[in-house]
Request: fold
Amino acid sequence: MKIAAIIPAAGIGMRMESSTPKQFVKVAGRSVLVRTLQKFISCQLIHTIHVVLRKDEIESFKKEIEDSKIQKTIQFVEGGETRQESVYRGFKAVEPDTNVVVIHDGVRPFVEVEMIKAIVQTAAKKGSAITVLSCFDTVKEIHQDLVVKTLPREKIVMVQTPQAFKYEILKESFERAEIEGFQGTDESSLVERLGFPVTALLGSERNIKITKPTDLPLAELYAQDIKFLRDITKVFF
Reply:
């Protein structure tokens, strides 16, 4: 089974309030994007990795990859104006004999390798799979600052990445969206609108998306926690 990963990281990241795009912000000495890539490099199921960046950031990030001594070959793709266009460009770079394509936000560096494996294996069996978190807050629909109704939170989930799809399903979904001018907020929304079933797997609260300054202290904490566990493992094992 041939598996390709697409890592979109072409965003500007206005909410980070920094001159450095969020994917290049350092967390415990390494950029967020490098940390994300290391998880996919560590996953033996992944055969190819396609990183989508803005054109003027590709060469400088290639240097960072070299400095990080990452051995696995990474293909770089120029991003588009929207996330959907960027991921589609990454998809077009994937070889057509690929079985499953997994997509993961470049700014979610704490995804677990076991979750990557699980999402890929589920998509291989069922066609499409996403990671989600349960919603514990009360959720309301509003219109012009007025509450319309309270939604049943037991039926509401918060969607994360990774998301994975069989190649043929994702191909048809992207092509139809382009023809019909549909813009979705994630790849799953493109697949759902064509009637393909999507399986939801429980994600992880540690799999945070780093988008704003207040996310960085928690990211540092998670990164230091991982380093501590590695150091302890070296000492005792």
User: Anything to note?
Assistant: Confidence is low (pLDDT under 50) at residues 228-237. The first strand starts at residue 3 and ends at 8. Residues 215-236 form the longest helix (22 residues). DSSP finds seven helices and eleven strands in the chain.
